[in-house]
Inverse folding.
């Protein structure tokens, strides 16, 4: 209930087995403006307490069946009821009865016959204590809410600071070698130009500079993608798309890279099999990372299978994309941390390629942006298999939670 204002009417429960006592108490309390509910025994009093909200209880001690002491014990054991102030009423004057009531949580004790002035004063005092306690509880809840908000903000700042540190460390580490290579190639181009080397030789060296710069751009884009995703600033652009065409386009883009390592790409992603509302660009980025990773870690002469299947009986169902390679696979430790950012796993690129440790974390973010999920099957005995499931929605979703 809301805190009772000073002097405001309250909702009171009077529990007594004597009908005459109930009538007298009701008249006294109603003249004070209070709303009075009565119960003619302990069991009825407990039932009414549990079914309603009361600001205070006036409880007789001596009652047949469930007496006042038992009612007090039940109130004390009930989390919702134990904060309601209780004044015990009894014709008994034994000290041990009074002590027992106070020990059980009663705020006060009044002997019968009831003195009206004393009753009014005790009720006023108890309601005032309840009002102050309610205000204190409300303040505590507000402080706890503020504390939770501050802890959440601190955690967000901690994660942002951790991300910044990882970003800078990874950028410094991963860009150092390509920058050194660019400097060496630039010096070589300058020396060969001074010696009058033929243009095609200089052009070849410039082409190598271009390749190294492209690698640096890829590293920087991966870092920036991860940073934006961690900050929750990715804004999806949903559209109706044929997932088969998205996958085939990704495979075509990766065919020159696969051919350079003697790896065969086999794609089975037919048109029209899976259509739905997705963020086409980010889904393509997820599949591209998976295919690129498979090529990077697969041995020459092996085959990578990229497939698309339709699953499910619900409207639209789900599209399942698979990328299966014949590479070294994953250890149990790899599987536990594969999709975390900045994680380099046990396998090493078979062609000496560079790895930022971000590819799979980007895959997870992009798949979840499309409302899907990604998981790995595989061990070192037979290679690795990545599976992506995307719900095939007909209407553009209003929101998709980020991981």
């Amino acid at each position: 209930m809301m805190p009772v204002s000073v002097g405001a009417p309250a909702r009171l429960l009077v529990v007594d087995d004597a009908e005459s006592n109930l009538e007298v108490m009701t008249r006294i309390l109603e003249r004070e403006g209070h709303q009075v509910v009565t119960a003619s025994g302990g069991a009825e009093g407990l039932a009414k307490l549990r079914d309603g909200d009361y600001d205070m209880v006036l409880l007789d001690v001596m009652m047949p069946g469930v007496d006042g002491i038992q009612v007090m014990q039940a109130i004390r054991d009930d989390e919702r009821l134990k904060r309601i102030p209780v004044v015990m009423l009894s014709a008994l004057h034994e000290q041990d009865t009074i002590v027992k009531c106070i020990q059980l949580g009663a705020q006060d004790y009044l002997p019968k016959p009831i003195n009206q002035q004393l009753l009014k004063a005790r009720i006023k005092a108890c309601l005032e204590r309840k009002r102050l306690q309610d205000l204190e509880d409300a303040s505590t809840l507000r402080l706890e809410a503020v504390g939770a908000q501050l802890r959440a903000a601190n955690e967000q700042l901690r994660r942002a600071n951790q991300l910044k540190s990882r970003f800078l460390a990874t950028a410094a580490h991963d860009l150092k070698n390509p920058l050194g290579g660019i400097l060496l190639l630039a010096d070589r181009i300058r020396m060969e130009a001074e010696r009058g080397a033929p243009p095609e030789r200089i052009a070849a060296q410039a082409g190598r500079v271009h390749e190294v710069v492209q690698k640096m751009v890829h590293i920087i884009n991966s870092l920036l993608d991860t940073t934006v995703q961690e900050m929750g600033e990715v804004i999806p652009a949903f559209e109706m798309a044929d997932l088969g065409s998205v996958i085939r386009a990704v495979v075509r883009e990766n065919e020159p890279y696969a051919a350079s390592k003697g790896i065969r790409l086999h794609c089975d992603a037919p048109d029209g099999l899976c259509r739905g509302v997705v963020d086409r660009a980010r889904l393509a980025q997820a599949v591209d990372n998976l295919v690129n990773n498979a090529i990077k870690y697969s041995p020459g002469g092996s085959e990578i299978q990229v497939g698309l299947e339709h699953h499910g009986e619900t409207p639209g169902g789900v599209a399942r994309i698979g990328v299966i390679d014949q590479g070294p696979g994953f250890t149990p430790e790899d599987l536990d941390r594969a999709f975390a950012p900045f994680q380099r796993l046990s396998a090493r690129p078979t062609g000496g390629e560079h790895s930022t440790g971000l590819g799979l974390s980007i895959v997870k973010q992009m798949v979840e942006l499309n409302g899907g999920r990604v998981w790995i099957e595989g061990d070192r005995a037979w290679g690795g298999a990545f599976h992506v499931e995307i719900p095939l929605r007909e209407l553009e979703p209003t929101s998709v939670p980020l991981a």
